[in-house]
């Protein structure tokens, strides 16, 4: 389609070049720009054109064009708005979706631009109406009806008792007070949204100076505010049942009608099933769905033909008196999801490239010749960068392998070694903004069996339930892990085969060879990652075709070890390969191979030379997020998109899904029923299968379930987040009412927010300063950042004989600086370390106690190794596994008078000859006063004054918990 810029109205030139909103009013059949300060102010006698430009993550710009028709506008002005909309679309490259908006029946997408609402005023430009600001002295009483859970439709109704009903929400705007009347059948969410309109009226028409009152339907005169409200209507009287609203249109729910518009004629299209093949690129089509009329315009249609189709659509609805039907116009290749969903099948096609005639390139070139800025119009795609993790990397990690309907805790040296035939559960405790955060996830290997996957989800869900749903739950698949997973593990190795009984049973029954990794066998690993805090070694097939010039590899056959460096790799890639070599084959001499100069022995191990790729694997890009409200009913998931969402759209009574393409978040409000909370993961899985946005979501897409009040930073980053809102009590209406009546956001007492420590790319040490004999030992306990006293305590349990350091360990910023390092505190006694811990706990700011997760499998923790390094790891893990219930006991009195005395060695949880018939939760009370002071560094009286969580930490350190 050829676009002649000289025919384009000058008011449109240069529009749509940057993210934002542009509005024009039709005056004398010409578009006149409206200043930003007047956006959202509409007059009933006018027609408007609204252009919403959205800058996408991929660097392109998306356009949505709406033309709004006031109820008193002339038919000529409305027709002019429709035609000018087509011209504006053509000038922007012919890719915009166009919507007709009728006053009182606007789309939610349109209303989302002007939150909380639009309130059209009488008059218009043709009548010479001049808007006069209302002042308190000549204020008129108005009555408005509101409805809508996500955006609010507001309509003024006659100020009379007959306008009220039980189903809707009404706002009575008087001179000194604004009343919100909540119909008994209205929902909590609608009431909360209507309060936003109350705030808008207060700020706009009362300069923020008036009282707010809420009135519940059915509340009698005993309520002072209710009595005052009914006084405006002559006193209280029962409301009648709601009569059908005038102008309600009933749309047939029968088969859709497809009409072809060609050369000015409109003919019906006969079909057995609605298929994409029915649409021809040189014609325009109408798809009549009752409530919506879609106008589809082929790429090869002319501008004149598209204008004709737009006029014909307006006439079709006018002749049939369908004033409420929405008209949605779109060009071939840029159809909306809702339009494509009407068809039996819609082929997956690559992005349509615009021709030189109607592409943005030509449009921009013409605009540039006219001296206009085209920088936004020709915005290039941003450079691809490694995504940020938005999670603190100094937390504590525990990992279990699923085995025979149960889970087995892995040692610190094995917790980053995964097998592709197994399933794993991980628990990560890390410092949040205001409290300790918890992430519990499952990881499914590509060859893991279904039984193990079901067991993993069940066990992880029980762990999350035990935290009272305050932990975030994740479901992850091998090959689709998000960046948060890699940062948590930092150094990860994925081996072939499996160790679980489920996998071994599958191998035995299927009769296939077990290719599980063997240190003495032949194996090839591809090394990848963005830095020491995010690196992986993935075992691949030991053949030459597995190589890639963009990666480094480790090849071993027993003690014969080769490293292979691709020609397109960087110094950082080679550094990561060295680090991974220290884990896979420590203390083994390797032979370096550079691409193009390999030895015959190297190729021999790979079965000979063959072609391989040089293209680096591209990480799937995160797309612009979409928020959906969802309802799971009888196994069916119903979703509805919320446009231009904010944190306030997350209602505490509902479940929402945030779709970022690379990850799915299921947000569950605090007021949601427990049964629904337990189904949160199912909701996410059903959404992935539904693929509402038709974006080819993979079945293995990561799913996170998030409970209100425990949102992690990698979720809140999609919002302008205020954590105080999620800390409020009550339902969404009660919370909003408290804010509106309070005159602003709630001022809640909460701990000072501390800056999260996000992972960043570590500086690579110069290779000349590195020695393989000093490399990082995989056996070394990985104790993450903690308080100085905690670090000192852990250091005393760590054996100095196990420090075979080679390549420096990952450079990670710790939340707290270490006051005592393992190398400088070898002579410190265990008792002094505990004393330091107790002192540190006393000095800490009184912040909310972290609610941690208790491991439900006590037998796993009973087994402790005498080796000092494992004692430190066990102690660290158990500190993080305190139960929520212990905090609830903080104020319970304890009476230890008259109890027998036993030696410390028999009271330990690992005692060879343990004491029986005692209260095992209060082992410390059976110590003598002298031995108690020796072990704890304080008297029993001082100990009993400590909060319960501090006592528990000390007892764990002494193996008395």
Automatic annotation (TrEMBL):
Residues 819-835 have a biased composition (Low complexity). Residues 852-870 have a biased composition (Basic and acidic residues). The keyword Glycoprotein does not apply. Its main location: cytoplasm. Keywords: Actin capping, Actin-binding, Calcium, Cytoplasm, Cytoskeleton, Repeat. Gene3D superfamilies: Severin (3.40.20.10), Villin headpiece domain (1.10.950.10). This is HP domain-containing protein. The lineage of its organism: Eukaryota, Viridiplantae, Streptophyta, Embryophyta, Tracheophyta.
